[in-house]
Amino acid sequence: MKPIKIAIIGYGKIAADQHVPSLAGNPRFELVATSSRSGQGVEPIFVDWRELLDKAEGLEAVAITTPPSVRHEIAATCIEKGLHVLLEKPPAVTLSEIDDLASLAEAKGVTLYATWHSRHNPSVPVAAEALAGKRIASMQISWQEDVHKWHPGQQWIWEAGGFGVFDPGINAFSIVTAIFPGALFVRSADLSVPSNAQTPIAAEIDFASEVADGALHASLDFRRTEGEEWTIDIRTSDGRTVLLEDGGARLFIDGEEQNLAGAGEYPDIYREFVDLIDERRSSVDVRPLRLVADCYLTASQRKVEPITM
Amino acid sequence: MKPIKIAIIGYGKIAADQHVPSLAGNPRFELVATSSRSGQGVEPIFVDWRELLDKAEGLEAVAITTPPSVRHEIAATCIEKGLHVLLEKPPAVTLSEIDDLASLAEAKGVTLYATWHSRHNPSVPVAAEALAGKRIASMQISWQEDVHKWHPGQQWIWEAGGFGVFDPGINAFSIVTAIFPGALFVRSADLSVPSNAQTPIAAEIDFASEVADGALHASLDFRRTEGEEWTIDIRTSDGRTVLLEDGGARLFIDGEEQNLAGAGEYPDIYREFVDLIDERRSSVDVRPLRLVADCYLTASQRKVEPITM
């Protein structure tokens, strides 16, 4: 079977660290071009993504890993050209944009894949099964990291539409929407916004759910200076504990670590992209982005000390 | 045909001014009870909406006109009891809540009607037809009013989840999503938030659209002290002008006022509610609320002088 000719549009840390090696390890794909405004990438490199689309012969698919603000325009153009499109998370800045892309892809009969990489840890389906049908006594999400360590040079994260601490926090949302045994509703969101930024550096969020008997909380913080914590701790009303650590890489059920082996987040994403393309299906779950929007709709905002960029 | 027994839950200005007279004028409905925490309403009055649901015999439908923050819980309970539900605008505080209600109503086989009263001006379908298939040269929404005159005592409007100037502004969004000949995307939203409030007192919003050749802008402002302006001015690239004034009550096409007669916003809402119930259909269009969410997702916020409440 001939490999699917794919290009990467937008070439930064996540493209270099994850997308390129995952494509190299998947025989169903052939990476034929990349584009970035900075001129970085894998040859042949285009500075203008429109030129890439014009010149890359036989192109069938693209992975879009630019900052979120330009994804809608690029993705709409690619869909219009009949290309299958994979979107890094978050799939767009606004919910109207991703809804529009889903409609365009359906009309054109191409695959649109809005990825949530954290869901591709093998712990996620196991945790979902452990929680299925249960009532929940408590949930505590702690998603805390040093922004200077994990987002060096990502100035866009602080600008309007840049998501701030929701950029990593949406990874937690993508996991809980996959494993929590009921719908989650944002009840309140206390956002701390640096005086020189437009997006939050920290967020304290309370959720409600019809299956909850106790408090559901998320604590997102970019100001952690020692180490990092990406944990989701859920206790069921009948006494089970489900603890995901390291962003979902490790899973403990009732205190016992589960022995889980998987392909890795991004290799598994590209495995699924092949399946979706083969079956001409799309996968677009807006719930993680919708929870961020819901946080803003219910938010209390406080200004905090400026960040050093 | 026996009238549909309906109750109003939440009894404030909009219930007294609009819902009660519209129900009185529609022979298909019989208003059998109201509830409000303040004890105001039409007899029999319940202070506790749960008691109303228990005691109102033969109840078939409810209109929920409480502040938005409590609508999801009340509506979910009503749907669970098999009642048809009409929601004042906005249908909920968060998008996850309204999505959940739509799923519950579908599962239960009852009618859920998320109303947008401004759409019930007879100008709206006429304006939509005048713009259908056109490219757009410009759009200017001006939605400006004195908050003290139009929202007396509505302290909730300034609290987290209270919408601020988006409470009237969502009326403009409900009209433009019905008449604009393409999808609208929020590109930027400059929000002015009083230092003693959690919601904006003013918003300057830029939109984009694939059918637009020029600027699309909305200017929402609660600080207007003389008169009020609720206008939507759209010019097509082939020279047509479509101007809605007075919140959609008046329509000018190419400068000429259109002679339009209609039942009135709320009588028309209840006429449609009857149709939906008779046909066991729901009507839930989240786009106006989604545009508010999209404004927050792209927002720049500035603190402005405190409001006097």
TrEMBL record, chains A, B:
Gene3D superfamilies: Dihydrodipicolinate Reductase, domain 2 (3.30.360.10), NAD(P)-binding Rossmann-like Domain (3.40.50.720). Residues 4-113 form the Gfo/Idh/MocA-like oxidoreductase N-terminal domain. Signal peptide: none annotated. It holds the Pfam family GFO_IDH_MocA. This is Gfo/Idh/MocA family oxidoreductase. It comes from Sphingomonas telluris.
